[in-house]
């Protein structure tokens, strides 16, 4: 981890740089009414893909799971304080969710 001291009127400030290009990934549940719920945030798409199913079951109530239309995998693009989330993929609804059962019926 690199640190860069900067002198200001208040004294010495430390800017901590942990990555040359900040990246973040997340899984977001999108409901039928187009509202969203954050499910999982990770440092890589692999980490998010591996953790979103547990988060889906733990964070959403049964009635909320019934109205999930899709789950999006998104990646942060831009500076940490000035960027946006970009859709990268659509993740599968976890097996056993009521939304999946309704689609299969």
Question: How is this structure best described in words?
Answer:
The chain has 105 residues and is α+β, with helices and mostly antiparallel strands. The protein has one domain. The protein has helices spanning 45-59, 62-65, 98-104; strands spanning 2-8, 11-17, 25-31, 36-42, 68-79, 82-91. The strands form 2 sheets. It has a 4-stranded antiparallel β-sheet with strand order 4-3-5-6. Strands 1-2 form a two-stranded antiparallel sheet. The longest helix has 15 residues, at 45-59. Residues 99-105 have low confidence and may be disordered.
| Count of extended strands | 6
List the strand order in the largest sheet.
4-3-5-6
Instruction: List SSEs in N-to-C order.
Output: EEEEHHEEH
- Most strands sheet: 4 strands, antiparallel
Percentage of residues assigned to helices: 10-25%
How large is the radius of gyration?
Answer: 18 Å
Count of individual helical segments: 3
